[in-house]
Amino acid sequence: MSGILIRGASLVGGDRADIRIADGSIVAVGSASAESGDHVIDADGLVALPGLVDLHTHLREPGGEASETVLTGTRAAAAGGFTAVFAMANTTPVADTAGVVEQVEALGRQHGYATVRPIGAVTVGLAGQQLAELGAMASSRAQVRVFSDDGHCVADPLMMRRALEYVAAFDGVVAQHAQEPRLTEGAQMNEGPLSGELGLTGWPAAAEESIIARDVLLAEHTHSRLHVCHVSTAGSVDVVRWAKARGIQVTAEVTPHHLLLTDETARDYDARFKVNPPLRRAEDVAALRAAVADGTIDIVATDHAPHPDESKECAWSEAAFGMVGLESALSVVQHALVDTGMLDWASVARVLSTTPAHIGRLAGYDRPLSVGAPAHLTLVDPAASRTWSPGELRGRSRNTPYTGLTLPGRVVATVHGGVPTVLDGALVDAETVAAAAGTGR
Amino acid sequence: MRHLLSTKDLARDDAVRILDVAEEMAATADREVKKLPALRGKTIVNLFFEDSTRTRLSFESAAKRLSADVITFSAKGSSVSKGESLKDTAQTLVAMGADAIVVRHHASGAAHRLAHAGWIDAAIINAGDGTHEHPTQALLDAFTLRRRLHGEDARGRALDGARVVIVGDILHSRVARSNVWLLATLGAEVHLVAPRTLQPAGIEAWPATVHELLDDALATGPDAVMMLRIQRERMHDAFFPTEREYARIWGLTAERFAALPADTIVMHPGPMNRGLEIASVAADSTRSTVLDQVTNGVSIRMAVLYLLVSGTDGGRA
Amino acid sequence: MSARPVLQTADIGRALRRIAHEILEARRGDGRLVFLGIPTRGAALAKRLHSIVEQIEPGVAEAGTLDVTMHRDDLGRSATRAPAPTRIPSGGIDDAVVVLVDDVLFSGRTVRAALDALADHGRPRAVRLAVLVDRGHRELPIRADFVGKNLPSATSERVFVRLTEVDGVDEVAISS
Ligand SMILES: [Zn+2]
């Protein structure tokens, strides 16, 4: 029986260990020796992380294949060290029925680069008018547990209350894109001195904070689980901290870009920096970093939002919101949190794997890198660094905000369910991965 | 100065130079032959994504008076509105031989993007971008003010000490933004007046004194009062309750006009809403520079085109 | 780089007085004289010629400036040039004898531009050219009617004219 032997990796606790993988599972951790036919990876100097889990990915398929597909998106995920992604519902058609979510889930399984867990829409067509068939999606083969109208806010307070109450029956969670629509009509960037100077309509922090405040009170009232997508302001952090102190079941995520970039990037009207929620002030970036470090913010999620070049090569207010992030997430987290001493690698494993899997009720990530657990892992070289260039991205779209920036860390290998998807820093080809995934190896 | 994108980044010397060259351009208007050969063989493209007959005619006439070839491209209803990107449009125009592109766009930053995205190599002149800037309008306002203040001695001078009150929808006004930066750069004392709903975020850091009530600002005894156009639709977005209330508190009414110092001039970038932001008696008085502003617009635009297009160095004369 | 002085204050004054007399003689009594100096130093020279003529025959002449920047044929080949003011005397130039005044006559291209610029202002009865220094090397069929000093030079040499009004000193020098 051939497998994979990883030699001398650093575990997140600091110990060095060999890890042997066979039949899709971890069969040995500690000291292990290669069996005949094993693929041996020399992991000297590499950190072994559990396979990363992204709770917020836009894979665009169906309907947006010019930007990304399940295949290209999961290849980007694998390249970034991810073994599971939660695919947002704002596709065409919208993932608001069991049929659509099953189709997306099946595509992920077929390609094999990562587990794809579809997120179901809260309301039909994301229109905020009528609840989607949440139960049908939950009980479908896609086993939807996360529901979100992301891209849109569930703004109607009654609709939000009902959704929170209704998904509790399936152990589901509502992931809210917190954006008060009236306060953000035509909004283009963070409301502040720069928006005033540049003549771009401001997106006030209060438009996010007021929805989060309302939603945590609704979650408290309904005894339901609430997840707050892409928290972007210091005020939001305060609200979440307050809610957690009251025992409200709320979890929160932050994107890598909100941990690194500020609204100053808008100064050149380069739409690669246009994103929703917008990049905020340096004070917000500092508060978000601190909130990840102290656990107020539970996870980092990419909000990977691919767009074709033409959606960005235009005037700012005509450009699409969003940036790709799967391939750069780990590097940005290392740069913003690890290299600054705010987070250790064990916490990186928590915010990028264990906790997002737990929020999304994704099995197989609760006992990372232990014997008997599914073999989802990624090997990172924290001493490496690279200068980002859009030409090197493995996803279909190039809208990265990090072009020209040198960021630390490099994913050397990714293993998804025992199947290597990245080896020696390069993606394993699609046929090999699909074939291996089909045999469960 | 390779491009003219905003007045924020315009140095005082460059601004005064543009005003001085505009004086020479203005002088040609009295000659038997009004046309100058300075831009013979050059091609100026007017790229207008937003209707503005006044500004378009002003740039066209400026370019023609300098003997440039002028191509006017009204992007509204053309392939551009059908999804062709700004980049593709610009590259097409440069392939047609454009030496300079005068761009008017409904989106803030469009001119900046054309100039700096690396898509094309042509001088870019911002003829108004969204709610960001309208630098030639501010330059012609400064020119008009300088002539009124200094007459024949205007050349070489700035606006040191001049007190200018700008009133109205500062939030959505590219004219206000360009004027604030330029007037401050030229040494003028700028006062801004608007209800809080129409003040942009961060206005307190602008080089101006901010007032909420017009009467407070007029009490400073200004050399010039510039009334901005109010769009009636703003009322529906709750920026102010009614036109009547706006006119009463922020309009240059006949009473306020009568109470102004005798030599205070009244400016308006046009088109005016008579009876809303400005009373007819003020708009039509000899102290109104509304028509001067139109005339001076051509001189300023000639100066800008000349300085950006004629030499090999982008206007470092 | 060493500059060799060619004309001093007194020489320049003498040259201008001689030119003024020559102009009056050549005029043969027909009509008004208008001196138009080409900025910057030509404008100062035109003023001086005008005041000399005023002393000899008061009221016969007027003076102004004629900027030629916009009419130059090398606008697109050199750094941007800022135009200088043009001041046409109140009487205009129609039917007058216009004397264009410049400091140095070299290629002739400035004078060509001046003739074009002049046409924008009217139709003189005749146009004459007065220069302080003619250094040769014409590139156009243009010659001066009145010359302060002929100064044969190599193209590699540079001729400097300094005038009190502009430079604080009167001097013509040549350097290689
Ligand atoms: Zn979102």
UniProtKB/TrEMBL annotation, chain A:
What HAMAP family does the record tag this protein with? Answer: PyrC_classI_B (MF_00220_B)
Q: Which organism is it from?
A: Microcella alkaliphila
Locate the coiled-coil region(s) and give their ranges: none
List the keywords (alphabetical). Answer: Hydrolase, Metal-binding, Pyrimidine biosynthesis, Zinc
Gene it is expressed from: pyrC
Please tell me where Zn(2+) 2 binds in this chain.
150, 177, 230
Could you say which residues bind substrate here?
Answer: 58-60, 90, 276, 307, 321-322
Stated name of the protein: Dihydroorotase
Task: Please name the PANTHER family in this protein's record.
Answer: ALLANTOINASE (PTHR43668)
Question: Which Gene Ontology BP annotations are present?
Answer: 'de novo' UMP biosynthetic process; purine nucleobase catabolic process
Dihydroorotase catalytic domain span: 47-234
EC annotation from Swiss-Prot or TrEMBL: 3.5.2.3
User: Which family does the record assign?
Assistant: Belongs to the metallo-dependent hydrolases superfamily. DHOase family. Class I DHOase subfamily.
UniProtKB/TrEMBL annotation, chain B:
Q: What is its EC number?
A: 2.1.3.2
Q: Name one GO cellular component term.
A: cytosol
**Where along this sequence does the record place binding of L-aspartate?**
82, 174, 229
Pathway the protein takes part in = Pyrimidine metabolism; UMP biosynthesis via de novo pathway; (S)-dihydroorotate from bicarbonate: step 2/3
Keywords annotated in UniProt: Pyrimidine biosynthesis, Transferase
Q: Which domain of life is it from?
A: Bacteria
Q: Which reaction does it catalyse?
A: carbamoyl phosphate + L-aspartate = N-carbamoyl-L-aspartate + phosphate + H(+)
Aspartate/ornithine carbamoyltransferase carbamoyl-P binding domain segment(s): 2-146
If you read the UniProt record, what top EC class would you report for this enzyme, in one word?
Answer: transferase
The chain's coiled-coil residues are none
Q: Which InterPro entries match?
A: Asp/Orn_carbamoyltranf_P-bd, Asp/Orn_carbamoylTrfase, Asp/Orn_carbamoylTrfase_sf, Asp_carbamoyltransf, Asp_carbamoyltransf_Asp/Orn-bd
Positions binding carbamoyl phosphate in this chain are 54-55, 104, 134, 137, 270-271
Q: Which SUPFAM superfamilies match?
A: Aspartate/ornithine carbamoyltransferase (SSF53671)
Where's the Aspartate/ornithine carbamoyltransferase Asp/Orn-binding domain?
161-308
List the Pfam families hit by this protein, alphabetically: OTCace, OTCace_N
What GO biological process terms does the UniProt entry carry, in alphabetical order? 'de novo' pyrimidine nucleobase biosynthetic process; 'de novo' UMP biosynthetic process; amino acid metabolic process
Note whether Transferase occurs among the keywords: yes
Alphabetized GO MF terms: amino acid binding; aspartate carbamoyltransferase activity
Per the record, the similarity remark reads: Belongs to the aspartate/ornithine carbamoyltransferase superfamily. ATCase family.
Quaternary structure (record): Heterododecamer (2C3:3R2) of six catalytic PyrB chains organized as two trimers (C3), and six regulatory PyrI chains organized as three dimers (R2).
Protein's job: Catalyzes the condensation of carbamoyl phosphate and aspartate to form carbamoyl aspartate and inorganic phosphate, the committed step in the de novo pyrimidine nucleotide biosynthesis pathway.
Q: What is this protein called?
A: Aspartate carbamoyltransferase
Automatic annotation (TrEMBL), chain C:
Q: Which UniProt keywords apply?
A: Glycosyltransferase, Transcription, Transcription regulation, Transferase
Q: Which InterPro entries match?
A: PRTase-like (IPR029057), PRTase_dom (IPR000836), PyrR (IPR023050), PyrR_bifunctional (IPR050137)
The UniProt annotation puts motif PRPP-binding at 98-110
Q: Where is the Phosphoribosyltransferase domain?
A: 8-147
- Specify the enzyme's EC class, one word: transferase
What are the GO BP annotations of this UniProt entry?
Answer: regulation of DNA-templated transcription
Q: Which reaction does it catalyse?
A: UMP + diphosphate = 5-phospho-alpha-D-ribose 1-diphosphate + uracil
Q: Name one Pfam family in it.
A: Pribosyltran
An example of a GO molecular function for this protein is: uracil phosphoribosyltransferase activity
Q: Which domain of life is it from?
A: Bacteria
List each coiled-coil range. none
- Give the EC number: 2.4.2.9
Keyword Transport belongs to the record: no
Q: Which family does it belong to?
A: Belongs to the purine/pyrimidine phosphoribosyltransferase family. PyrR subfamily.
* The protein's role, per its UniProt record: Also displays a weak uracil phosphoribosyltransferase activity which is not physiologically significant. Regulates the transcription of the pyrimidine nucleotide (pyr) operon in response to exogenous pyrimidines.
The record's section on HAMAP family has: PyrR
Protein's UniProt name: Bifunctional protein PyrR
Q: Which organism is it from?
A: Microcella alkaliphila
